Amino acid sequence: MSYIIDAIILWIIGAIVGLIFMALGVGYVAASIIIGLLISLGYFTYFFGNGQTPGMKVMKIKLCGTDGTYPIGYGKGFLRWIGMLISALVIYIGFLWILIDKDKQGWHDKIADTYVVLE
């Protein structure tokens, strides 16, 4: 659910930036792919690094390192974002992995050494 909230926020930001680029005459399709990736990179790296995205805050969950560190920092935030891309590449198996993993970690959590915990 937290990801849906974050996706809505990202969609709004992306739509605004996309309209600006379109008004400037930049090709919308090419620009939207690049802009979408850059906005996603910045958004998730920043908020993961600080321990919570706005969606996670609403759902009262946060990220911590497997060693208990909080917040996890921008390096692990970036790794978790890369892990999300990898998790989504193969029909979202990396996210579904949470359902069968004994530690309830998706591939993105394993890559970044993070856990999602209740606030």
UniProtKB/TrEMBL annotation:
Keywords: Cell membrane, Membrane, Transmembrane, Transmembrane helix. It is found in: Cell membrane. The lineage of its organism: Archaea, Methanobacteriati, Methanobacteriota, Stenosarchaea group, Methanomicrobia. GO terms for cellular component: plasma membrane. The keyword rRNA-binding does not apply. This is RDD domain-containing protein. It is a multi-pass membrane protein. Its main location: membrane.
